[in-house]
Amino acid sequence: MTHKPDGPSHNVLSVAPRGGQNASIFYIFNEIRDILGTTKSFIWPGFEATGNEIKGFAPTVLNPQDETGNVALETEFKPIFDMREIGIHGYYFSGDNNRHFVAADNAEYSFEADAEPFSLGIWALPMEGGSALQALMAKYDEGVATEYSLHVTSGDVLQLDLFDGIDGATGKLRYTAVKATVDLYQLRFYVMVYAGNEGVVKFYKDGILVETITAVETSAYANMDDTAAKFFVGGRDDGGVPDDLFQGWLALPQGSQKALSEAEVRDLYSLQRDLLGV
């Protein structure tokens, strides 16, 4: 899946957008961060191919883990997508080996006020369909502290859950897509935009608005809490045990306390597909 362009190699810090002129990788990330905004925004570029930390434009690192704790990227996650020699990687998550990424709890990953909108985005290449729930990104510790979960259902559609307290014991909002399916064995950019105030959720795929969903409310939902739950990529926490694990490749997890516009989602897709060379 690794792609090398024909002709002279690109500088390690530059990428050739479809406009033809090389742009600094950091210029592109500046553009991405301008779109995400400055309030509770984060993205992990995936520069790392080795070690047990992924640094990003975020308040904490992501740690690659399995059920034993921190593990090395090069032995557990098979980093690829070193596209166009610029050092942006995707990582392979094997659901049967408990592989996931985790960031320490931080207020920057919580969107607790009812009026707060937020958006989450990630590049995903699923390799298993029609199975159990597979989490993409979540701040969720089952039975302990639950805030939100963006995941793929057993029906291979996107779903967002928002929790007012502990899942199953208090109020919940659920947004289940019908048209926003995930495509097996294809790398796509999936984005969720929540309007706040228990409003609609918009699901995007490759920069295109696919579906606008209203919530199904369980019990009385008021707002999310800011809990001590850790932020997971490719899984969810279940009392210290990784659960609901994703099977496939993931890249560029990101989020923001902002209801991204359709134009902004489209721009994020365009900028990031240049980074990944797709």
UniProtKB/TrEMBL annotation:
<dbReference type="Pfam" id="PF13385">
    <property type="entry name" value="Laminin_G_3"/>
</dbReference>
<protein>
    <recommendedName>
        <fullName>LamG-like jellyroll fold domain-containing protein</fullName>
    </recommendedName>
</protein>
<dbReference type="InterPro" id="IPR013320">
    <property type="entry name" value="ConA-like_dom_sf"/>
</dbReference>
